[in-house]
Write a structure and sequence with these properties.
The protein contains three helices and three strands. With 87 residues, the protein is an alpha+beta fold. The protein has one domain. The radius of gyration is 15 Å and the shape is elongated.
């Protein structure tokens, strides 16, 4: 993975009770499509669906934003794998 620009994975995010895609770029920046969907560009329909899932689960659902532990963990994994590949 030495010559790459971006890598991505889809995970289940319990913060929003849905699958989200996390992207990590070579410059160490990250992006989570869940953040865009549930924070930046949330629609009334999406908010209603999130509220419905929260009620069903009996707990609050809320995206944790760019500093989400899932994003940070995936970023760490990607760069740890790259460091091993360079050896």
């Amino acid at each position: 993975m030495l010559n790459w620009q971006v890598t991505a994975t889809t995970i289940y995010c319990d913060a929003v009770d849905n699958d989200v895609t996390i992207m990590v770029y070579k410059d160490r920046s990250t992006r989570c499509v869940g953040y865009k969907k549930y924070i930046e560009s949330i629609t009334k329909k999406t908010a209603k669906e999130l509220k419905k899932r929260a009620k069903k689960l009996g707990r609050e659902l809320r995206c944790e934003g760019p500093e989400c532990s899932r994003v940070i963990a995936y970023q760490g994994k990607v760069f740890a794998e790259e460091a091993i590949a360079k050896e």
